[in-house]
Amino acid sequence: MELSIAAKLDQRLEKAPVVPLVVPADPQSSIETARALVAGGLTVIEVVLRTTAAMEALEQIVSAVPEATIGAGTVLSDQQARDVLQAGAQFIVSPGLYAPVVQVAQAAKVPVFPGVATASEAQNAWNMGLRTLKFFPASLAGGPAMLKAIGSVFGDVKFMPTGGVSAANLGDYLALPNVLACGGSWLTPKSAIAEGNYNVITKLAAEAVAIAKQSRG
Ligand code: 3PG
Q1: Which candidate in 46, 59, 121, 158 is catalytic?
Q2: For the chain, what percent of residues have pLDDT higher than 90?
Q3: pTM of the entire structure?
Q4: Mean pLDDT throughout 99-128?
Q5: Which of 4, 89, 131, 191 is least surrounded, with the fewest CB atoms within 10 Å of its CB?
Q6: Looking at residues 119-140, what average pLDDT do you find?
Q7: Is residue 98 part of a domain?
Q8: Which pLDDT value is given to residue 4?
Q9: Exposed, middle or buried by CB within 10 Å (0-12, 13-18, 19+), for 67?
Q10: Residue 1: predicted pLDDT
């Protein structure tokens, strides 16, 4: 039986709980970046809407890299949410909590991870029926200590810390039981992409997978 998008996403995150960000300079280099990440063991990828090439890149990555689950990040409006779904996004991430974005994703039955940084935002999201939230910007919003504190009241919520996560602190976040996965751009350095040096990206992905294994057993 074919797994649902959500089930496949869960399965992939369980295997490698790290979500690399791709900031598309152009569609071709973004496809190469996604392939390099998959080669290193990361199969859940967030393509962020921060460049003019982003929407086109998202659409092309979805069809060129079917072995990965490709989501859209930095989705700020409900119109953008509809556009990324049209482009094939399999999950949606936002920096903050904006109900119309959540509603578009929920209506399409696509996983959505709005960003929260406070207990009030987490409580609002919880009341929208959400149980998996982005925690952003993780390092400035209190890091692992904040996630521990918030975990004591939102016992059924899992978080995806993003913002300031790196190989140096990935293990600290993943050691927490309420962390679903960590997101970040440290896996896709701009300089490596500009130089076409995709091996660097595969190595960083493999390093993250190894850290996750060590921290989660
Ligand atoms: C995000 O969109 O989640 C952040 O910009 C990623 O933060 P990082 O660049 O520190 O990983």
Answers
A1: 46
A2: 95
A3: 0.96
A4: 98
A5: 191
A6: 97
A7: yes
A8: 85
A9: exposed
A10: 62
Residue 190 annotated as catalytic: no
CATH number for the domain harbouring residue 111: 3.20.20.70
**8 within domain boundaries:** no
Which residue has the CA at smallest separation from atom 5 of ligand 1? 163
Tell me if 51 sits within 8 A of 30, measured CB to CB.
Answer: no
The answer as to whether 79 is a domain residue is: yes
Instruction: Report the 3 state secondary structure along 84-97.
Output: HHHCCCCCEECCCC
> pLDDT, tens digit, for every residue of 24-49?
999 999 999 999 999 999 999 999 99
Structural domain contains residue 2: no
Angle at 156 between CA 152 and CA 162, to 5 degrees: 80
The pLDDT score that the predictor gives to residue 2 is 74
Residue 20 half-sphere exposure toward CB, CA atoms < 13 A: 32
Question: What is the domain count for the chain?
Answer: 1
> Tokens 């300079």 belong to which residue?
25
Pocket test for ligand 1, best of 136, 159, 187 (most atoms within 8 A of CB): 136
Given 56, 59, 109, 134, the catalytic residue: 134
89 C-alpha to ligand 1 centroid (Å): 19
Where in the sequence is the domain holding 56, given as residue range(s)? 18-212
Asked if residue 163 has its Cβ within 6 Å of ligand 1, the reply is yes
